[in-house]
Amino acid sequence: MPARRLSGAGRSGGMTLEQLKVFVAVARALHMTRAAETLNMTQSAVSASVAALEASCGVALFHRVGRRIELTEAGRVFVPEAEAVLARAGAAETILADLSGLRRGRLSIHASQTIANYWLGPLLHRFHKLYPDIALEVVIGNTAQVASAVRAGEADLGFVEGEVEEALLARVAVPGDRLVLVVAAHDPRAELKALTPADLIDMPFVLREPGSGTRQVFEDALRASGLDPSQLKVVLELPSNEAVVSAVAAGAGATVISDLVTASGLAMGTLKQLPLTLPARRFYALRHADRYNSRAAQALLALVREPEAAPGIAPAAPVSRPRPRARR
Asked: pLDDT tens for residues 87-145?
């Protein structure tokens, strides 16, 4: 399919939406290789796309500083404009796809790690069986990153574990999981029959990074019990569930993480669950409150809320739009 060119062609024939997509990815990563990985392109193709865009508009968008790249002033100004064009183009495609029902189209989903790796897969498989002509795109990030993607119009739907209260984001509560406290099976603490607040304060912890929904829920539970999360001895902060569980199994400390993540380690005997009761948590589907809500997004939400629902188009799921919080 030929590249779609935007009006107002420049000296080299005008820019394309694909070039804008590449530019935005590079501007966010400030790294050609990481942007190429995100886009599933070669580094040379990414570099060529950026060079073609710069030639088209006759302006340098990046400084090449040794092996690093930085946005020029023109590049910084152009980023929100390019993001807006891509969002509008995506919305137009969604509306056109809706005219054909669920016989074609694309659904962009951003999800936090626990949800994407352990919860969402079977639901997407069922959705694909029901609507095989809807292309599904899934991007994994933490709760803060997912909320940002939905807010910016990069994702039709986001799925997160943490609480997100933003006026622009509508939330749908969906079935979730339960957090558990685990240590390595060979850790001396594995034999504890009861825990005191002092035990938690003295325990070395391996946790997800700030911005993770799992960490947010754990810290909220500590505050509700009268404990200050800053008192915890956090010896490692790691960016993935798998890295956290691997470090804990090696004896680095304890962690609080989803029971979906620890199920295999507990079954194999590499992890031991400690007697700490944490509340069950809901997951949340996020969508932009003011953007068009496609039939594909509605269908996936209906499936998530009622996994055994019969095929077909369900009415839009009720959503909650949080009230803005007063600034402190």
From this structure: 888 777 767 665 556 666 788 999 988 899 989 999 999 999 998 988 899 998 888 88
Kindly give, in sequence order, each residue whose CB lies less than 8 Å from that of residue 235, ignoring residues fewer than 6 positions away. 204, 205, 206, 252, 253
> The tokens of 222 are what?
């500590």
**Torsion angle of alpha carbons 287, 18, 144, 305, nearest 10°?**
30
d(CA 294, CA 317): 12
d(CA 152, CA 170): 14
Q: Cα–Cα–Cα angle for 44, 50, 55, nearest 5°?
A: 120
What is the full DSSP assignment across 185-254? TTSGGGG-S---HHHHHHSEEEEEPTT-HHHHHHHHHHHHTT--GGGSEEEEEESSHHHHHHHHHTTS-B
Question: 298 to each of 28, 139, 162, 172, 301, how far by Cα in Å?
Answer: 30, 19, 22, 11, 5
Is the distance from CB of 114 to CB of 177 less than 8 angstroms?
yes
d(CA 241, CA 258): 9
Structure tokens at 240: 């993935």
Share of the chain residues as helix, strand and coil, in percent rounded to the nearest 5: 45, 25, 35
pTM exceeds 0.70, yes or no: no
Of 155, 173, 140, 174, the closest CA to residue 297 belongs to 155
Residues 6+ apart with CB under 8 A from 251: 184, 186, 187
Rg from Cα positions in the chain: 23
